[in-house]
TrEMBL record:
Organism: Heliomicrobium gestii (Heliobacterium gestii)
Subunit field text: Heterodimer of a large and a small subunit.
Location in the cell: Cell envelope
Key words, A-Z: 3Fe-4S, 4Fe-4S, Iron, Iron-sulfur, Metal-binding, Oxidoreductase, Signal
Similarity comment: family membership: Belongs to the [NiFe]/[NiFeSe] hydrogenase small subunit family.
Main location: other
Protein name: Hydrogenase small subunit
GO MF terms held by the record: 3 iron, 4 sulfur cluster binding; 4 iron, 4 sulfur cluster binding; electron transfer activity; ferredoxin hydrogenase activity; metal ion binding
Binding positions ([4Fe-4S] cluster 2): H224, C227, C247, C253
């Protein structure tokens, strides 16, 4: 299968037969294994400062299912959620994976990186030398990774973990490591976006990325462009209250500025998505989420003009966007 054909399959996944990706990817992986052309994709998956929603969403993947991803696509070397080992055994597996698979593994980071309190707001493990903070772990593992995937909006852009007033000083993965980071944003991420990205890395290497580092095959157009209620917007027919069938732009929908394919990909085995459930898109894949999307039910043109909690017209700051405060690579603040 050619790369362009695979990317078309990922874009049109919901319109294909239910097992389309499974039928395409798993035989290719088996062929790689049989021909000893690299085998499965080695993955180290760590969680930092997040809600754990992305690995839960991943478990909803369908065709391929989670067990097929684990058994047929990726070689999961470390994951504090999905592995049985704990304590010293888990830490040894992490160190061993880092040493044996240098420049060959894919690092998946789920969550933002706290820089406040010397980084100790998120500790990955305790070692004889002291705490292994999320910052130290991402710097250490990221420097030896072939690919780095920031899973979810917290990892990709800071997200809710870095929302005002951001007391832990959370930052995006790309703000603390050098090199290219593949941002698979979403709060949570759609499992198709993550599994499709892993499959692309396995079979074809780095996917085409947009200006925010997101795979174009999933984030190439706005929610507004493909929304089923777009005709109401074009006719300026807007909902008056939640539950109305008209366009939800009047109730805060952020679809016009949000790049994602939710309207046709849908969620939970391609069943529904927020607008289908009569609630506005809140722009959870955006770099300025959630600050730039709140108040959620205020029309989009008015969101940017409203002060956030604790702000006045004099001290108000713009919504946080990736890199605003970064000069070079961010690092933990000194002190206790």
């Amino acid at each position: 299968m050619r790369r362009a054909e695979f990317e078309r399959l990922c874009r049109n996944w919901p319109f294909e037969k239910g097992d389309a990706l499974t039928g395409a990817v798993l035989p290719l992986v088996r062929g790689r294994l049989a021909g000893q052309r690299g085998g499965k994709l080695p993955v180290i998956w760590i969680e930092t400062c997040d809600s754990g929603d992305n690995n839960i969403s991943f478990l909803n993947t369908a065709a391929p299912y989670a067990d097929q991803v684990f058994s047929g696509m990726i070689d999961l070397l470390y994951s504090n959620t999905f592995m049985a080992a704990q304590g010293r055994d888990a830490l040894w597996l992490l160190q061993d994976a880092h040493e044996r698979r240098k420049q060959r593994y894919t690092l998946v980071v789920e969550g933002a990186i706290p820089l406040g309190g010397r980084g100790r707001f998120a500790v990955i493990a305790w070692t004889p030398a002291g705490p292994l903070t999320a910052y130290d772990a991402v710097r250490w593992l990221g420097s030896a990774a072939e690919y780095v995937v920031a899973l979810g909006t917290c990892a990709a852009f800071g997200g809710p973990s870095a929302a005002r007033p951001n007391p832990t000083g959370c930052a995006a993965v790309s703000e603390v490591i050098d090199g290219t980071v593949i941002n698979v944003s979403g709060c949570p991420v759609n499992p198709d976006w993550f599994v499709g990205t892993l499959a692309h890395l396995l079979l074809y290497g780095m996917p085409e990325l947009d200006e925010r580092g997101r795979p174009v095959m999933f984030y190439g157009s706005t929610v507004h462009r493909h929304c089923q209620r777009r005709s109401y917007f074009d006719q300026k027919v807007f909902a008056q209250r939640l539950g109305d069938r008209e366009c939800l732009f009047s109730l805060g929908c952020a679809g016009p500025k949000t790049y994602a394919d939710c309207p046709y990909r849908l969620w939970v085995d391609h069943v529904s998505w927020p607008v289908k459930a009569n609630t506005p898109c809140i722009g959870c894949t955006n770099p300025d989420f959630p600050d730039g999307s709140t108040p959620f039910f205020t029309p989009l043109p008015e969101k940017a003009r409203l002060p956030q909690k604790g702000e006045t017209a004099e001290n108000r700051k713009p919504p946080r966007v990736l890199g605003d405060a970064a000069r070079g690579r961010a690092s933990p603040e000194p002190g206790s």
